[in-house]
Amino acid sequence: MTxxxxxxxxxGERSYDIVIEPGLLERLPGRLEHLDVRGKVGVVxxxxxxxxxAKQVIAALTKKRLEPVLIALPPGERTKTxxxxxxxxxxxxxxxxxxxxWLLALGGGVVGDITGFAAAIYQRGIPxxxxxxxxxxxxxxxxxxxxxxxxxxxxxxxGAFYQPRAVWIDPMTLRTLPEREWxxxxxxxxxxxxxxxxxxxxxxxxxxxxxxxxxxxxxxxxIKRSCEIKASVVAADEREGDRRRILNxxxxxxxxxxxxxxxxxxIHGEAVGIGLFQEADLACxxxxxxxxxxxxxxxxxxxxxxxxxxxxxxxxxxxKAMLHDKKVSGGQVVGVWPEKIGQVRVAPLxxxxxxxxxxxxxxxxxxxxxxxxxxx
Length: 376
Prior knowledge:
This protein is α/β, with parallel strands linked by helices. It has 2 domains: 5-176, Rossmann fold (3-Layer(aba) Sandwich); 179-375, Up-down Bundle (Dehydroquinate synthase-like, alpha domain), CATH 1.20.1090.10. The protein is built from 14 helices and 11 strands. Helix 7 (198-212) runs antiparallel to helix 8.
């Protein structure tokens, strides 16, 4: 994997670059100098990522005569709480961090969201940099300035919009990513093709076998294109007033499934993968797209190694969990529904429609092999 790229996120005075560069962590001192990082630097990570990369990052900071402070949290979605944010703030206050001090988020989406939120509220805002080490974080959560934590009643209910000063992506970190996490991250990649780019979706259909085994060129391509799409959407709608809502496709049902499982049974990308297919099926039920669109989505999700099957929750429990999502508006569940590959619409969902669909739905796409053969 040798290709490098820079993707700008154009937000006026809050603009920054996403730098995608294999081996970036080895050249971290130069990146720090380019951004003029000075003084105390808190490195927030989790205990898994710490084992692989913390020593290298701390050495780079020390080489630049900075003052690193390592903050290692337990791994997993259940760490994404106000208690964890409080623990970061305690360290910053104890070490007398100032407004000119920095935070580095070294890890996956949970680390990035927590670190960004802590940066947003400590002394009313200090600068931070995202250094994502998982696929989900590299293609999605590290970009766009959404920070925050979960509440026991719903995911991401507490947080703030706060942009990083940079996103530094080293695709080489994906080599140490567990297989389950890698596959789960592909759900967010597939999402981008569905919401905005049919040619990219077709690329995923063709190249998914190579992508599954982390073929370097395929990995580089999906990271770059995903970041480009995310950056363009964020630049058009930073605070999710309109256009940015399309990024929630697959997450209305996905977030509800995560919450119902207590953030234990499904990791984020697995839940989103189910949501991609089930929300397409629900869109088809409402007459928004044809069955072939649902079929294609179901096929590529499964080719990525993800399930499309809905866990056996009563419809009333699932609906209640969906009502606690931050995307609810005026007491209504608002979803993102594909009209065709590359085009979606945002529209409310009625409970009666949802319950009828839920009672009649089928989990897996039918005639999968025949459908794939007909597209060749």
